[in-house]
Amino acid sequence: MRLVVIGLVAGFFSALFGVGGGIVVVPLLILAADFRERAAMATSLASIGLIAVAGSISYALRGDVHLGYAMLIGLPAALGAVAGTTLQQRLATRALTLSFAGLLTAIGIWMLL
Amino acid sequence: MTVAIAIALGLLAGVLAGLYGVGGGILFVPTLVLAFGLGQVEAEATSLVAILPTVAAGAWRQHRYGNVRWRAAVVIGLAAIGGVELGVLAAKSLPEQTLQRLFGLFVIGVAAQLAWRTRRVS
Predict the structure, then answer these.
(1) What is the ipTM of this complex?
(2) Residues of the domain holding A95
(3) Do A79 and A45 share a structural domain?
(4) Alpha-carbon B95 to chain mean position
(5) Which residues in chain B touch residue A75, judged by CB atoms under 8 angstroms apart?
(6) Could you tell me if A50 and A82 lie in one domain?
(7) Cα(A35)–Cα(A47) distance, integer angstroms
(8) Does A51 reach chain B within 8 Å, measured CB to CB?
(9) Cβ-contact A9, B80 below 8 angstroms
């Protein structure tokens, strides 16, 4: 039952913002469904795949998807993510994470204005 | 030229997402809006398709490590269909400007969470 509620919330959030929704699923699995962090992150990835497929189909049926851009950005990103995950141990220092948070804040402000 | 830029930005977004443990979508949506001029709804729709390869690769790897609890993942995924429909309807009924501002707030929230996480670790 809790998993159903997590799914409903994550699906809404994911479709509203066009994101996977891991930022919602991971904490909910840990806090509401007693998952440990590693299992929560792994299980969230699998569920996000299903959620994103549902969102993609729903938007595609309404004609909002630009498939060309999705492939041009999405396929290189999958390669990049493998590299990023591998580099994580060496490069994810506090200063770099804070500068990334700064970059995200700048993007957020840009979109707000 | 646009093709080369899209590939480069996709690669960069993937590296950053992998490095900092965030999803690709939070970077894909602003990239599509700010660099390629898509509307907010189209950018979000396209982002959901664009994250599929990254998520599939990540889920496959976690599956091989034996970390995925598939029954829970499938229950969440199926239940999400209802939420997804509501989310799409909400996104399409809001004025694009409002949706874009909400997204901006969301990005700032993620940034704050990242910053907070570094404090807790150190």
Answers:
(1) 0.92
(2) 66-113
(3) no
(4) 21
(5) 10, 53
(6) no
(7) 14
(8) yes
(9) no
Under 8 Å CB-to-CB from B109, ≥6 apart: which residues? none
Q: Does A31 touch chain B (CB under 8 A)?
A: no
Mean pLDDT by 10 residues, chain B (122 residues): 89 88 88 94 97 92 92 96 97 97 96 85 52
Closest Cα in chain B, distance from residue A96 (Å): 9
Contact (CB<8Å) B69/A12: no
What is this structure's pTM? 0.92
Which residue of A5, A17, A87, A105 to mutate against B (max B Cβ within 10 Å)? A17
Contact of B22 with A23, CB cutoff 8 Å: yes
Task: Establish if A36 touches chain B: CB-CB under 8 angstroms.
Answer: no
Which of A50, A65, A80 is at the close of a domain?
Answer: A65
In whole angstroms, what is the distance from residue A90 CA to residue B5 CA? 27
Q: Is A26 on the interface with B (CB under 8 A)?
A: no
Residues A81 and A107 in one domain: yes
- Residue A30 token pair: 């840990």
